Amino acid sequence: MHSGKTISEVSGLLLAGGQARRMGGADKGLLMLGGRPLVAWGLQRLAAQVGEVMISANRNHTHYEKLGVPVISDSVSGYAGPLAGMVAGLGKASRGWVLNAPCDSPLLAKDYAARMYAAGESGEFDAVVAHDGKRLQPVFMMLNRQSQPSLEGFLAGGGRKIDLWLGDVSHAKVDFSDHEEMFLNVNTPEDLEEMESRIAGDPDSPE
Asked: DSSP labels for the chain?
């Protein structure tokens, strides 16, 4: 079993920049879960694993800043999707790798950073992507700083789909099929209710 050690060479980024259409446009990261904003759960787990952590958000900055970490905005206008948040993170990070996670997936594996970094530390890949045993989960992705020009070019050309960009760069896959709950996310009010019952039964919540 991998330990949940801190990987100082990695910056962490919580992606909270989406529009959350299925939540009626609510700012998903700020929805309350177990008495805390949804984003706070993933932030706590990620911050324990990396050298620094940031939040990518496109609105309600003052609310996110109350969580005590830097908040950055997309440099690409018009809610360009997760890649826009990721490229902004690459521009602000002080570490060589940026490990991304969506704000609405609070059950991050405690060895998320350790396992991703183990796959990428050789430096031969631009990206490392989590896999749930059935498919890639590209929002759970660690990017090398060297990937920034490629990603900027892809976005400037109108590209938005992570899978398409990944097809152009060298990447490794990390199997997290033993931790499928990490990929559960909150898209609807029903999902939020279900997550409430999950964290209530989680001995690590709140940690």
From this structure: ------EEEEEEEEEE----GGGTT--GGGSEETTEEHHHHHHHHHHTTEEEEEEEESS-HHHHHTTSS-EE--SSSS---HHHHHHHHHHH-SSSEEEEEETT-----TTHHHHHHHHHTTS--SEEEEE-SSSEEEEEEEEEGGGHHHHHHHHHTT---HHHHHTTS-EEEEE-GGGGGGG----SHHHHHHHHHHHHT-TTS--
